[in-house]
Amino acid sequence: MKARIVSMISVISAAFAFAMAAPLALAPSAAGTWFVVAAAENGMTQGEVRRVDAGQGKITIRHGEIKNLQMPPMTMVFKVRDPAMVDAVKKGDRILFRAVQENGDLVITEIRPAP
Ligand SMILES: [Cu+2]
After folding, report:
1. CA 56 to mean position of chain CA atoms
2. How many Å lie between the centroid of ligand 1 and the Cα of residue 63?
3. Per-residue b/e over 43-82, b at no fewer than 16 CB within 10 Å?
4. From ligand 1's centre to the CA of 62, what distance in Å?
5. Is the pTM of this model over 0.85?
6. Is residue 58 a contact partner of residue 105, using CB atoms and an 8 Å limit?
7. 105 C-alpha vs ligand 1 centroid, how far in Å?
8. CATH of span 2-113
9. For 9-65, how does the pLDDT look when each residue is reduced to its tens digit (9 = 90+)?
């Protein structure tokens, strides 16, 4: 039952993320540029999934600059806030994510596929 609720929440989140991204996907020839600008404004960081550890609720990401954490590009491990997030991505996926510092850990609060 709990798993069903979590998975419904993740479907709703994905639908919401898609709805948010949709107007940008409609942008004409410079769609890529538009998207990068919008991602930076939203505090989203680009990355590539290198490893998913579902048991530990951790994802290893090769990430670009994380502006809100003043962090340069690197490969590192993040915790996820919602356990359903580890099921939404797999190794090799290009993603956009948002991370915050929480009690000494870096925690992903939002993650979705890069277009
Ligand atoms: Cu890092």
Report:
1. 17
2. 7
3. bbbbbbbbebeeeebbbbbebbebeeeebeeeeeebbbbb
4. 8
5. no
6. no
7. 11
8. 2.40.50.320
9. 444 444 444 444 433 433 334 444 545 545 555 779 999 999 999 999 999 999 999
